[in-house]
Amino acid sequence: MGRKKKNLCQESRKGGKLAIDIDSDADIQECTSASAQSGSKSLNHLLEQLYEKKGSTRESALSSIIQRSSLGYQYQFCEKNFAELLYQCLKSFKRGSSKESCLAVEALGLLAINIGCGENSRELYKESVPVLSEALKTESQSKKLKLILDCLAIVTFVGGNELDETERSMQSIWDFMHSRTDSKESQSAAVFSWSFLLSTMDSWSISYKHWQGAIPFFKNLLEADHESTLIGAKQALALILELGCHEKFEGDTSATEEINVKNIFKDGRVPEISVKVGKQILKVDTLPQQIQLNFLKRLLGSGFVVHMKENELLHDVFKFKPEKRQSGREVYVAERDEAAIKLFVPDVRREDSYQRIHKSQNSIFVKARTQIRNKNRDIKGEEQWCSED
């Protein structure tokens, strides 16, 4: 994630607050319960099942991996088994049934989120983006197209470090938007994915030649009778206006004069979004980050809060520092000291001095031993008191 994904534009104007509480104890329990219900099978066993010849077995394994990867942060498993997960998912996507192919592309997107930035995410980008971009040209199933668009966007977001890499994925989505207007669901998904990637870019880095005509295109979508498409078009136009480089999106005729933020947001202000994450509040008040927040929440579902607490990728994107929990035993830990005493004993006859040195109540050995025993007795009492609390 070498390109900018944080301070993506000038500070937005703050408006009303939209509070989203998705982290109650009931939510956590529900996530934990759902994760447990994914079966007693370990993730390693599920990985082994991706090699099975029976398609239904692979489908079941992919479904469980998706559930576990969305409801919980699975970095260690994904890091350790990255190559196998990547190539088995690509194999299932290209050769499996329609159901298996859909599950595989969804698993690839979650793999990107769990693995985070680094060499593995670069490999994921290089291996999967050409396959996904080609699939956009040939696939006809609306549900699968939506999953491909989501996957292409998130894989590029995490693994596409260079500007031209982001632009290539955006271009594939852009071409799809203009050529596949027959499916409203797919077109709206394309609009959201395109805006998601645009939200990672600075105005100065956007090319003059790639997105000419974007403003009139999205303006026409404002008259669509499909709600999701309408919302996506408003979001895209608002982001373009936020970036401020209208000339890069206008086309042959200027349509910017007819559009302003008041037509898109109530009172012309971007509402602040607050998300409860445990005892903390994540506040997002810039449009680019709100677009990223909504996109990631949709991909992770009820597991978003768990990832927000544990996933370093999300911490970096939203500049979020989770609180570190301390258990009762960690609040107070008794320390056990060991003392060594060196005593010079003159060369005297043992039978005459042994009783005086080792047995006498005034002996230094007896006093030291008594002190250590008393201290150990106090420490043991303190440890028992902590455990009872």
CATH architecture of the largest domain: Alpha Horseshoe
CATH class of the largest domain: Mainly Alpha
What distance lies between the first and last C-alpha atoms, to the nearest angstrom?
45 Å
Topology, number of strands: 3
CATH topology tier name of the largest domain? Leucine-rich Repeat Variant
How much of the sequence is in beta strands? 5-15%
* Poorly predicted sequence stretches spanning 5 or more consecutive residues: 5-40, 328-335
Pfam families: IFRD, IFRD_C
Family: Belongs to the IFRD family.
Protein name: Armadillo-like helical protein
InterPro entries: ARM-like (IPR011989), ARM-type_fold (IPR016024), IFRD (IPR039777), Interferon-rel_develop_reg_C (IPR006921), Interferon-rel_develop_reg_N (IPR007701)
3D structure, described in words:
The chain has 389 residues and is mainly alpha-helical. The chain folds into 2 domains: 14-318, Leucine-rich Repeat Variant (Alpha Horseshoe), CATH 1.25.10; 330-388, no CATH class. Helix content is 61%, strand content 5%. The protein has helices spanning 25-37, 43-49, 55-71, 75-80, 82-95, 98-115, 119-138, 142-159, 163-179, 184-198, 214-221, 227-243, 287-300, 304-310, 312-318, 328-331, 350-359, 364-388, and strands at 14-20, 270-277, 280-284. A 3-stranded mixed sheet has the order 1-2-3. A hairpin with a 2-residue loop joins strand 2 (270-277) and strand 3. The two termini are 45 Å apart. The model is unreliable at 5-40 and 328-335 (pLDDT under 50). Residues 30-258 form the Interferon-related developmental regulator N-terminal domain. Residues 311-378 form the Interferon-related developmental regulator C-terminal domain. This is Armadillo-like helical protein. InterPro entries: ARM-like, ARM-type_fold, IFRD, Interferon-rel_develop_reg_C, Interferon-rel_develop_reg_N.
